[in-house]
Amino acid sequence: MKTWRALACLPVAALFLVMPAAPAEAASASSAAPDSAGSIDALLDAVTEIKAQQKQLEQQLEPLLETLSEAMATGQLDPAFCHNDWAFAHSPGRLSYAFPAAVQQIEQQLKAAKDAAIQQGSATEKRGKPFWTIRRQKTQSLPF
Hints:
The chain is mainly alpha-helical. The chain has helices spanning 24-31, 37-73, 101-120, and strands at 80-83, 86-89. β1 and β2 (86-89) form a beta hairpin.
């Protein structure tokens, strides 16, 4: 079995596994501004088709990424490397903490103070970058 070594093919900041751009059909659908209900339907159909494909690809990708992690754990792969012009970088996951009750109580007091500042109007509103959430609707059970 081949052992892969880390390669300095990209700057460290660029070592992210990114999703490839949407297919050309979707790009052409988005280039024209929607001007009728039919074109909106076509746009929504294209978006939902790509989202369904994305979900299928993510399901196929998950076990492959687990196998990559196992190969890294056994020393067959470095945490960062390049392969066929693709940069791979393993991230250990977000670190979080479970706090003792005393800290949780202070956190609740802070939350109450923040809520009060919002109600009084002394907190300034900030908004992040807008985005779309697109997911398949859950099937509702029939009433009979």
